[in-house]
Amino acid sequence: MRYSGEKRFSMWTSFSLIILAIFSVFIIYPLALVLYKSVVDPHSGSFTLDYLLKFFTKKFYWSTLVNSFQVTVCSTLLAALIGLPMAYVMRSVKIKGSSWLDILIVISYLSPPFIGAYAWIQLLGRNGLVTNLINELFGITFDGIYGFAGIVLVFTLQSFPLVYMYVSGALKGLDNSLNEAAESLGCGRVERIMRIIVPLIMPTLLASSLLVFMRVFADFGTPMLIGEGFKTMPVLIYTQFMSEVGGDDGFAAALCVIIITLTILMFFAQRFLANRSTYSMTALKPMAAEQATGMKNMLSHAFVYLVVGLAILPQAVVIYTSFLKSNGGQVFTGGFGLQSYEATLFAKDNEVIWNTYMLGVISISIIVVLGILISYLTVRKRNVLNSTLDTITMFPYIIPGSVLGISFLFAFNNPPILLSGTALIMIIAFTIRRLPYTVRSGTAVIGQISPSVEEAAISLGASEMKTFTKVTVPMMMPGVLAGAIMSWVTIISELSSSIILYTNSTQTLTISIYTEVIRGNYGNASAYSTILTITSILSLLIFYRLTGRRDISM
């Protein structure tokens, strides 16, 4: 939208150039430096492919890529196979407590995957409650969930809510008259689902599945905790970088380039599938949940309750474990007590909770401001500059956090921009990495605001900036808040980049949970996890209260 008399170089162009300059420094430059280090010999300065050849010629390295694809493909397929029927059952059958079940599903998704891994260790680890029960009942030696099966289990239960939320939204906009017309022509329920409903929601199903694919492929915490000998690419990148910080940076950079290339290809595949065969439909008669009877009602409730119960089980386990009596939050001694909280929440030298909230609040404040500006620029001020800005904004979303953390250390570990070891580098990493959630939701909502509203304000004498701040921004806020709550929750639960960038003075809750699990201090880990889970739940409830909504658009 261009107003009459608007100059080609305006205040908005200045905003675009400033934001693009910031992104050039904190996104383009670090990633370009990673690419440079991967193909340049540090001693001679000459071009080399030795680092890339090292990866592809040694099975120890390239097998991790195969492992990553195996885990990711299996987890994505299982997440789709659970999320799709869950969405259909919840939309077509009246389920008791469905509104609360929706909230529990969202909470299970907002929880970091590695907390799920830790909770399942408590249940199905070598000394887990369920493991010991299985071994006693069947007289076998079950070795726990470590390895491929455990990783897939955790990722599936933590990722299906994403498919569920997207498909549920698509079903909400489906015109049920098509389904009824097919029924009147003699189509059975299964045939109607496969020939009408599934094809109509297939673009949404594919898009959400690809989001799951990218999320699982880039995750570091879960395979690190329960993978043991089954290594994936993010784990390999972390271990190689941490063991070679003072030496072979080039190989770590080459690993980053490989995973960046793969995730970018996945991103473009997602955009291609999302734009292909997209159906536009007005739900004149939306699908309504009906009261089922008999076996259908029983099976529907059993399926939904079982899936939701398994999804929310990790949160329940860590909360329960946090209240078990322990020896300073380490060894459980039987009964209930608050020793785990005394060793964490009330520790004199404990600053991790303060760091988590302080870094999170600062980051989310910057994200909201940048998200509003970028959304407005890309929708209302469309040009090549702002289209470039929109594309660059999505890079941190598709690039694994460990890769972003490593690129930041490459770029900002020496003058003239020396940021490593400071809180500022953590804030910048959180902001850059989680900004896309707010930008995408803000872009979606401003696209639904008619430009005539702003034009009317300007015609009544308001300046363009006053129209933006007094008219446009208030109308954008519900969508911005939806993205902001996702940005906030993912910031406070961020592990992949913070595990690379943190120091003792900037340690956060997620890093503390991870380190306590590695040390075997499960009581302390549970207490920290409970604090993080309660924070996520309260954030979600506050969002619902402020917006009056019962869903989050992502």
Structure overview:
By secondary structure, the protein is mainly alpha-helical. It has helices at 11-39, 50-57, 59-92, 98-110, 113-124, 129-138, 148-172, 176-184, 189-218, 221-226, 233-243, 249-275, 294-322, 339-342, 352-380, 384-398, 401-411, 423-446, 451-459, 464-492, 498-501, 509-519, 522-547, and strands at residues 324-327, 331-336, 413-414, 417-418. Strands 1-2 form a two-stranded antiparallel sheet. Strands 3-4 form a two-stranded antiparallel ribbon. The chain is globular, with a radius of gyration of 25 Å. The model is unreliable at 1-6 (pLDDT under 50).
Oligomeric status = single chain
Care to count the β-strands? 4
Main sheet: which strands, in order across?
1-2
Number of helices: 23
Main sheet attributes: strand count, strand direction, barrel closure: 2 strands, antiparallel
- How large is the radius of gyration? 25 Å
3D shape: globular
Helical percent range? over 70%
Low-confidence stretches: 1-6
Secondary-structure element string = HHHHHHHHHHHHHEEHHHHEEHHHHHH
Q: What is the first-to-last residue Cα distance?
A: 25 Å
- Average residue-wise pLDDT: 83
The proportion of strand residues reads under 5%
Structural class: mainly alpha
